[in-house]
Amino acid sequence: VPAGMGGIVADLLERGHIDVLVSTGANLTHDVIEAIGCSHYRGTADCSDVALRHDEINRIYDVFLPNAAFVRFEEFMQEAFAALPEGSVLSIQELLAHLGSRLETGILATAARKGVPVYCPAIQDSMIGLQYWLFAQTHRVTIDAFRDMPGLLDRCFGAKRAGAFLVGGGVPKNYILQSMLMTENGFAYAVQLTGDRPDLGGLSGATLDEARSWGKLAEGAEAVTVYADATITFPLMAAAVLERLEAQHG
What we know:
The strands form four sheets. A three-stranded antiparallel sheet has the order 2-4-3. The two termini are 30 Å apart. The longest helix has 20 residues. It is globular, with a radius of gyration of 19 Å. It has two domains: 139 residues, 3-Layer(aba) Sandwich (Deoxyhypusine Synthase); 91 residues. α1 runs parallel beside α6, α4 crosses α7 and α5 packs across α6. Helix content is 47%, strand content 17%. The model has no long low-confidence stretch (mean pLDDT 94).
């Protein structure tokens, strides 16, 4: 999202091309920040991070985000949490749908409006998680991560043919791929965009062929990995696919 790809995901959701979305908490945090009217700014990696700290500016490689955005983010989050009934228990997906219902633009807003579930298995590893912790010090609202599993796995069992599109890696990548392990069939097709190498043994660079050994991908699954900057490949691929679909269906 800080690199400007949030609009692409929201557009794909709006057009009905995403049935389930799994994200990091960081991307959803930045989605909320933009949806409440704050902006990311083009910066540079060739700078003094100590000076940025003194100027209350956070750096994401060559993207800058002022601390003032997080002040507005905290206000929004605390108001959203306060609207939840005291004593309620929610899944992470239900919490994200609640947040999206209070926004007008962006990924969470579009997903909530279109009824697309958004999962974030490591949400505590984000500013959203920290804001929930702050709220939970004085309120009784429980977020139960395991409540997400039935809905996700029901979709997997009900899918006649499932595909995965992976941008990057980390927790979302494995959460997506492992979702088919409980079914008789793995994913029938998959595309992975990554800049990480497989020989270092990390998940983000692991090949999709490796996933076949686990049964996450079917033995005969169509799969391709693109090793390149996803901020370049993802927009190009999304534009190409949408152009072809429009040509086919008019």
